User: Fold this.
Amino acid sequence: MVWTFVFNGKPPQIGIGVGRKHIVGAFIKEHDEFVLNVPNADMVQAFEKVEMNSGATEDKFTLSGLTWGKAIKVDAPTVAKSPIHVECCVFLA
Assistant:
């Protein structure tokens, strides 16, 4: 994601901003679901590798050493060992 931010705590609402050129934007537009993965301190370097490299040119999971996981409520992948997965559905007001 390019930007994430909290709109509201009760009910929980998270906003995201994705540039048109980012691959993830097309996936979110097609599926209306996504997962925000929150790393622990040991995972920060791997997450930074994902953030700083383009998925258009290389496999970010191979580059970072992260592994895929499966969300429970939405049909979107997670980062397997990430301690927090925020499973999200797109809501357009």
About this structure: The mean pLDDT is 85.
